[in-house]
């Protein structure tokens, strides 16, 4: 006997359980929740996901997610056109945008080099970044990739590719987070924060 | 500016975040995962949920989820037709079925009485349970509802409704779970396990 009492329920549970971080028990809870929602809401739910996958576009300049051919950031003349911040994915663009500290453009790699996960440089948008820099309008590339082996590898790969061009390559600063206690900070971060100390500027 | 860079992404994130226990950050992670899946898989995902909601049926006898008019349990002549186990929802049927200890029938209430959540006896399938008992074929009702105030209220409500009929009303046993240590068991459970002690039967 089918433990789900219904093939339709079983299918829905299996599909929900295919999402990352969602197990069978959670998937069943979500499926039963959807089963007790209005038909109209469930239709909207399913269609929103299908429509997203079917119709979403990626900005042809920075590869960020976009509804138009060129995203709002790339097509905004008020942004500094000569500074490009390189990030792993669209979530990082959202995170940096929410700081209101960056007025330049982005370049979304759609991943980082990771031999374990089978992601090689060709799978990323590094080629289009090099082309952009080669065209000569860029004066600074800010590398804002994760501080992991994969992030460091990707940083170094991009650095080697961009070395022939006259462009400043910087990385975001690493150090003790604001609000964190020194005694609970890991040694590598604390050590880096001393090496990369900045001039105290009074108030 | 839309922080999601795309209305389509925003819609999908909002829909996913409407699921219980899923916040905006998780919803975004799930949406980006789906965005990098094959179109075909995402279509299957959305359709599985819509089809489940549209076509699923409830057994007209026990109100369990079913693909047919009468569920596999109710239509199985090998099950004991005179014992009915009353449960809150379909998950409890699955849990009890997986023990292989129960050969009777079920009655799914689709909830329990909970004034705080606005769930009154009329919202549940208690009426159809009473009809079933009134028809005279049932000799025992096993109440397997949660040991909460709502569960106790529902137990008592059903008990009052079924008192006029000649039917044995039992509840599942409560006690120290197998594998649990006495010192970590809460006082109420431990107290109940002493009050409701059973005869030691040797091997």
**Regions of chain A with pLDDT < 50 over 5+ consecutive residues?**
none
Number of helices of chain A: 7
Biggest interface, chains and residue tallies: A-B, 60 and 60 residues
Q: Helicity of chain A, in percent?
A: 25-40%
Task: Note the beta-strand portion of chain A.
Answer: 5-15%
CATH architecture of the largest domain in chain A: 3-Layer(aba) Sandwich
Whole-number total of structural domains of chain A: 2
Quaternary assembly:
homodimer
CATH level 3 topology of the largest domain in chain A: Dna Topoisomerase Vi A Subunit, Chain: A, domain 2
| Count of beta strands of chain A | 6
CATH class division of the largest domain in chain A = Alpha Beta
Task: Output the structural class of chain A.
Answer: alpha/beta
Elements of chain A, N to C (H/E): HHHEEEHEHEHEH
- State the end-to-end distance of chain A: 72 Å
Query: Mind describing the biggest β-sheet of chain A?
Result: 4 strands, parallel
Give the radius of gyration of chain A.
Answer: 22 Å
Write a structural description.
Two copies of one chain form a homodimer. Chain A has seven helices and six strands; from the N terminus they run αααβββαβαβαβα. With 203 residues, chain A is α/β, with parallel strands linked by helices. Chain A has two domains: 7-55, RecR Domain 1 (Helicase, Ruva Protein, domain 3, Orthogonal Bundle); 58-171, Dna Topoisomerase Vi A Subunit, Chain: A, domain 2 (3-Layer(aba) Sandwich). In chain A, strands 4-3-5-6 form a four-stranded parallel beta sheet. The first copy, chain A, is globular. The termini of chain A are far apart. The mean pLDDT of chain A is 91.
């Amino acid at each position: 006997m089918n433990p789900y009492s219904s093939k339709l329920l079983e299918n829905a549970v299996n599909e929900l359980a295919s999402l990352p971080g969602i197990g069978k028990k959670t998937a069943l809870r979500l499926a039963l929740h959807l089963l007790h929602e209005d038909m109209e809401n469930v239709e909207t739910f399913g269609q929103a996901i299908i429509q997203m996958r079917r119709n979403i576009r990626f900005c042809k300049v920075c590869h960020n997610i976009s509804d138009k051919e060129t995203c709002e950031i790339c097509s905004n003349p008020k942004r500094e056109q000569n500074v490009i911040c390189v990030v792993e994915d669209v979530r990082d663009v959202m995170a940096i945008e929410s700081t209101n500290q960056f007025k330049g453009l982005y370049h979304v790699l759609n991943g980082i080099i990771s031999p374990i996960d089978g992601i090689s440089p060709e799978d990323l948008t590094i080629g289009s970044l090099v082309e952009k820099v080669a065209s000569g309008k860029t004066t600074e590339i800010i590398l804002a990739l994760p501080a992991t082996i994969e992030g460091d590898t990707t940083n170094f790969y991009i650095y080697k590719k961009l070395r022939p061009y006259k462009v400043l390559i910087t990385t975001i600063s690493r150090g003790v987070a604001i609000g964190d206690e020194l005694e609970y900070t890991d040694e590598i971060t604390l050590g880096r924060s001393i090496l990369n100390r900045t001039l105290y500027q009074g108030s």
